[in-house]
Write a structure and sequence with these properties.
Layout lengths: L1 H13 L1 E9 L5 H11 L5 H10 L14 H6 L6 E6 L3 E7 L7 H8 L4 E7 L6 H13 L3 E7 L8 H17 L5 E6 L23 H7 L11 E8 L2 E8 L1 E2 L4 E4 L2 E4 L3 E3 L2 E3 L2 E2 L3 E5 L11 E3 L4 E12 L8 E8 L2 E8 L9 E14 L1 H5 L4 E6 L4 E11 L2
Helix pairs in contact: 5-6
């Protein structure tokens, strides 16, 4: 029995984890789309289906599956980041439903920062809104490369192909203005009826492409470029080092580098079992190498780790108060905190997106491959109030 459980755990943890960011203007149908995705992919239990059917007065109210806050339900909108979970035979999914209102841009930014694929909805009846452009700007800022544009509510425009194509051209034109380097897919959908969400249906015979479900289940999410293996030290106890793989694949006996130091990685454990490799996002434990100073927050790489004290970053400002041109803050990245001087553009306000310069008071470990893939995320904390005042993505080292 124990052997069977161990093998089952191995299968589950081998499944690829995909995080999906969903966004759209108010009433574009994000929550309904997620509900339809869960319902038609058989991800819901009969108890949950019965509950949302009762809440919907006889028909499943799909939006209730993610609009979990009582305040959201009473107002009929999403104001917080909601999560839904399901899996197929090859992937585990976390669906992140983010608010559509402009005043909740910081919620959108936070929700999208951990995602691999984005689904951006646009109402086929209303067309592109100001917030649709804001969502695209957030994706550019965070470096999310794979984006599915779902033109929703096609049932309200008679499932017309010309309407769909017109919206596609509108989106493509805006992508060119912001230099978005996306791999983009355009899908005409009706979340209410289910057309092109999980099943193609018969309402749009002119559409020969994939459904939203087949795209998220089939798209490759491997990082582009370098296969550099990078770990971050999470903690040390009883002569054991605990680390997280941030990039690439790590194997026992690999040589890891940090500045001018190097170490041969000993055999390690993953989930309490000996492992022959560990991929991005997993955690490992190994014996502390002798005569080597390893500390929490350090980065070690199969290629190169370099120190830097000046950075350019894409920032979402999250504080209500308008700041001055420079601020002394703490930068939190992974398990490490760094004192930093933030240089801000004048007049920056709550929820604004901007490129800024960061001047660190001490060297910070950087891996080129992670920065190039826009996966170096951070938050900024005001040491006086302990409040998070900003979050962003590191773009490049300055000097």
């Amino acid at each position: 029995m124990q052997e069977w459980k161990t093998e089952k755990l191995k299968v589950i943890f081998k499944m690829e984890l995909v995080r999906i960011f969903t966004a759209g203007n108010v009433d574009d149908g994000k929550s309904t789309l997620i509900g339809r995705l869960l319902l038609d992919s058989n991800a819901l239990s009969t108890d949950v289906i019965r509950q949302v059917t009762e809440q919907g007065g006889g028909a499943p109210n799909l939006a209730f599956l993610t609009d979990g806050l009582r305040a959201e339900r009473s107002m009929g909108i999403t104001i917080d980041v909601a999560y839904a979970f399901f899996r197929t035979d090859r992937r585990q999914f976390i669906l992140v439903d983010t608010p559509g209102h402009e005043e909740y841009t910081r919620n959108m930014f936070a929700g999208a920062s951990v995602c691999d694929i984005a689904i951006v909805l646009m109402d086929a009846h209303r067309g592109m809104a100001k917030q649709t452009k804001k969502h695209i700007e957030i994706l550019v800022s965070l470096g999310i490369k794979k984006v599915i544009f779902a033109i929703n509510k096609m049932d309200l425009v008679g499932y017309q192909e010309t309407v769909f194509l017109s919206h596609c051209e509108q989106i493509k034109a805006y992508l060119n203005t912001v230099s978005a380097e996306f791999s983009s897919w355009f899908v005409p959908v009706s979340a209410l009826t289910g057309a092109s969400v999980v099943f193609i249906g018969e309402s749009m015979p002119w559409y020969q492409g994939e459904t939203v479900f087949s795209l998220v289940n089939g798209l490759s999410i491997e990082a582009e470029g370098s296969s550099e293996g990078v770990i971050e030290i999470q903690g040390i106890g009883n002569q054991t080092v605990y680390a997280k793989v941030l990039s690439g694949v790590i194997r026992p006996q690999a040589t890891l580098y940090r500045y001018e130091e190097s170490v041969q990685l000993p055999s390690f454990f993953r989930l309490g079992l000996p492992a022959s490799e560990a991929e991005e996002g997993t955690s490992i434990a190994f014996s502390l190498p002798e005569n080597l100073c390893i500390q929490r927050g350090q980065r070690w790489s199969t290629e190169k780790i370099f120190p830097t004290q000046a950075l350019r970053a894409s920032l979402c400002w999250m504080a209500a108060d308008e700041p001055g041109p420079t601020l002394a803050l703490w930068l939190s990245r992974g398990t490490a905190f760094h004192p930093v001087i933030l240089h801000l553009p004048s007049g920056i306000k709550l929820n604004a997106l901007s490129e800024v310069d960061l001047e660190l008071q001490e060297p910070m470990d950087m891996a080129l491959s992670i920065m190039e893939n826009r996966k170096e995320h951070f938050i900024l904390v005001d040491p006086r109030s302990n409040q998070t005042v900003g979050a962003g993505t590191l773009i490049n080292a300055l000097g």
